[in-house]
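Please, structure for the following, as tokens.
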Amino acid sequence: MSGGLLQGTCGGMLKGCCHRTAKSANIGIDASTAVDLTNVPALEYGPVQNDPSCGISLAKQTAQRRIVGGDDAGFGSFPWQAYIRIGSSRCGGSLISRRHVVTAGHCVARATPRQVHVTLGDYVINSAVEPLPAYTFGVRTINVHPYFKFTPQADRFDVAVLTLERTVHFMPHIAPICLPEKNEDFLGKFGWAAGWGALNPGSRLRPKTLQAVDVPVLDNRGQPGIYHRVANTVDWISHITQIST
């Protein structure tokens, strides 16, 4: 991204970047409820491995400076976006290889693979009139991060990797996102959040069209309980994709 535009291999929620300066925010965290990670052992894995075609988006998405909500993303802007159905529940995710989708741990921690279905290439939910068709996949295995727990704190290793039942064929509107390397620093840049979630706090209404909004990457120093082990979590995600093909 440059000047608010999604560009080539720099696109996406996990790999998005921008040269605009992000203003730091004072996030109030109650230290009494924050997760103490000082005694959590680090999980050592090998280097992150990405698909050579990761991070490529054919469409450019204009950044929208909004606190809540978003705008229509544009067809194909986020080709890694996954729409995940778990029974009657819905979650979002990101395609990271030809067989794997990363999502939130709390979405699938209590589900069986047979209950989970992943749709790729979707843009307007339940619409058959789109430039290219969407494809739905069953799930073979669910790997939830070993340190994940159902707690109210923000830093809870809330991540899971789904192994799909069959191989994904990449298309103009279906492609994987890149996982960041451990030493990459995105502080002061902007990332993207995309999905079909509520546009207003507390609303039960959900948009049918994929939404996107850019969000600043903030410094977590002095903010206990805010994603302290992101780098190690990314290593774990990459490790799972290598052992569960």
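The CA atoms of residues 98 and 168 lie 5 Å apart. The chain has a mean pLDDT of 78.
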